[in-house]
Design brief:
80 residues; Transcription Termination Factor Rho, Rna-binding Domain, Chain A, Domain 1; mainly alpha
Length: 80
């Protein structure tokens, strides 16, 4: 994720609707202009949570699976 500032609820409540639209646009919230100020704040805060969950790797992603070995090649010399 790009380095975008994550605002607290208190900071977002001080913003005007137009400023919240800008934040919502950066968070890729669709149709942000139809929401009331309080609803938009909730959506922005939820989008922060969703983004942080996406960035945190799950256990399955962090465990490395062993590579499969192919057939071993026979020596050209043969058995001595």
């Amino acid at each position: 994720m790009e380095n975008q500032k994550k605002y607290t609820r208190e900071e977002l409540e001080k913003f005007r609707a137009r400023d919240l639209y800008d934040v919502a646009k950066k968070q890729k919230i669709k149709r942000y202009t139809i929401y009331k100020k309080n609803e938009l704040i909730e959506l922005i805060l939820k989008s922060y949570e969703n983004k942080s969950k996406e960035e945190t790797p799950t256990k399955e992603e962090t465990v490395k699976t062993p590579k499969k070995r192919g057939r071993t090649k026979k020596s050209k010399r043969g058995n001595l």
